[in-house]
Amino acid sequence: xxxxxxxxxxxxxxxxxxxxxxxxxxxxxxxxxxxxxxxxxxxxxxxxxxxxxxxxxxxxxxxxxxxxxxxxxxxxxxxxxxxxxxxxxxxxxxxxxxxxxxxxxxxxxxxxxxxxxxxxxxxxxxxxxxxxxxxxxxxxxxxxxxxxxxxxxxxxxxxxxxxxxxxxxxxxxxxxxxxxxxxxxxxxxxxxxxxxxxxxxxxxxxxxxxxxxxxxxxxxxxxxxxxxxxxxxxxxxxxxxxxxxxxxxxxxxxxxxxxxxxxxxxxxxxxxxxxxxxxxxxxxxxxxxxxxxxxxxxxxxxxxxxxxxxxxxxxxxxxxxxxxxxxxxxxxxxxxxxxxxxxxxxxxx
Length: 349
Hints:
By secondary structure, this protein is of the alpha/beta class. It contains 11 helices and 19 strands. A hairpin with a 2-residue loop joins β8 and β9 (157-158). The chain starts with 8 loop residues before the first helix and ends with a helix. 38% of the residues are buried.
């Protein structure tokens, strides 16, 4: 997580006392070079924030530099808890137009701060990502009659935008999006990706290629680093950098994002041997591990695939038959928006 924590002197240089004057606060903003001061009571209790814009407005209204800064302090500020990921911070900052986002604990003790310039630019990865967004989403019925499934909104933002922000927040700067159905809507919304802090390249499927075939469209780009591949209808939050690190450290050919899944069978189930019932289980729960539709693949995979209709499971089965190493990486926060009830779940209904 890119944030300056309390032991970091840069964070402490942003602190000002509630009794500080405008000029004292201006010095803090200038010296910290973060365009913000944190108004702190005691050791670290955050009570408000002051931006360079707040200070300019105070002066334009005729305030004296010796006047207290507290009247110009924003005490109703946005913040995130300590456990928030960089992608979550970036999502909130993008949606609210914020350049700064304090990190606080339950007692409003300042634990760090996200700076937009720091969230977007550090730890840039050499890896590219491919988002599979060409499906028609027919199982969602009328919901996708006039919009591609990845552009369905969840909490006021298209699913595909959430994925892009997740990847950008993880340090990925080149994102390929495979498109087919209503491709022009995705092209118009994302453009070249510059407004999202990345380069976006659309890969046009002349005919549906499934979940594996679009990898063949990457062959002209001659990728040299492992590629992150994601279905475009996922509402998820995971550590992409950690997944790529796991792929490298285990020397995998393909790393599969997996999730534990439990399903309650709504009936009593019988075990029968030689025509006799030997056990009865009332509404048993079946637990298994499922494929999340998120992968890291070796560049050799993209070189081996040609653009044709190809399920990703065929790629996986071929890798197994050829004794390639397939790893698993657990994805904890994940919803596949493929059916109306799943979409309702993602929307919190």
